[in-house]
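Researcher: I'm preparing a figure for a lab meeting and need a structural model of a single chain. I don't have an experimental structure, so a prediction will have to do for now. The sequence is pasted below. Please return the structure as C-alpha cells so I can convert it later.
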Amino acid sequence: MIKPAKLQKGDKIATISLSWGGAGELPHRYEVGKKQIQEAFGVEVVETSHALKSADWIYKNPQARVDDLYEALEDSTIKAIFSNIGGEDSVRTLSLIDPKVIQAHPKIFIGFSDTTITHFCFFKAGVVSFYGTSVLTGFAENGGMHAYQVKDIQHNLFSAKPVGRVSPNIDGWTSAFLDWANPENQLIKRPLTPSTGWRFLQGKGVVEGALLGGCLEVMESLKDTKFWVQPAEWKGKIMFIETSEEKMLPHQFRWILRNYAASGILANIAGLIVARPYDNLYHQEYDEVLHTVIREEEGLDQLPVITGMDFGHTAPIFTLPYGVNAQIDCEEQTFSILESGVVD
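Model: Understood. Here is the structure written out cell by cell.
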C-alpha cells in the first residue's frame, strides 16, 4: 500500500461532497466544522469546486463529484481531502472513478459511512485512506471537538510514528440528536453516555492483519462491482464493520453475516472488530447474532471478535487506516495499530 504524506501545520486541505450535499444545505454547520479544523490543527481549509452546492445539485451531478476528487488529488497545494458528510448514493460515482488517478496522486482522504465507497476505490488503487470522522460530524461537534477526537486525528494524520495501542474512550460517547438545521443548537453540547468499554467476545492469543472494512449497509452496495474485495483477498485481514443511523435490525445483520460466511470471507479473516451501534441500539442482539453465526453455525470459535468499539456513527471516534497492519491481543484485551498510515 502507498502511504500518503503526513499533514503539518500550515498545510492546505480540501473539503468534498461525494454523497449528500449537506454542506450546501447547512452552511452554518459547515463553517463551524471548517473553523474548528483550522483552530485545532493549524491548517488552511478550502472547498473543492462543487463542495457547497445544494443537495439536489450534488445528487444530479455524480460526475462533478468525481471531478472534485480529481481536482483535489491533482492540485499539488492540497495535502489532504476531508469528506463533508456521508449519504446514500456514492455508489453512483463508482463507474466514473479511475483508480489510476488516485494511485498517481496519493493523499490523505478521510470520511466514514457512505464514504466507504470511495475508500474501497483508494484500496483498489493501493493507497491508504482513513475511515474516520467528517466535517459536518466530529469536526463540527456541538460546543467544540471532543479531546479524544482531536488526539486521534493528531496521531493518525499528523505523525508518521506507529499509532500504537488504541485506548477506549472513557469520557463518554454520544449520538444524541440536535437538529443541525437550527443554528442555535450548535452551542449546546450533546449529553454523554458513560462508556462501558469494549467487549472481547471470543478469541485466543494475538493476531495481526491489515485493516479493511467500512459501513455494513454501504458494503452491500459494493458487492459485485469491480471495487469489491473478493473472498480470497480478505485472507489474513482484520475486518472492521459498523452500522449506520438507519439502525439495522438484528435479523438483517444476521443475513449479511451469513453472506460473509457463505462467501468464505469470515473463514479467511484474522479478526473482526465491530463499532458501537447508533444510540447503542441492538448492541446485545448484534453480539448474539455474532455468536450464533460465527461460533455456532461456522465453528469459528477461535476468531477474535471485539464489539462496542469507538468508531462509526457515535462520537467521538478513532480512525482506522485501510491496509495498515493492526493487532488484536485477546489475552491482554487490547487493540493496536502497528504502523502509521502516513509517511514523513
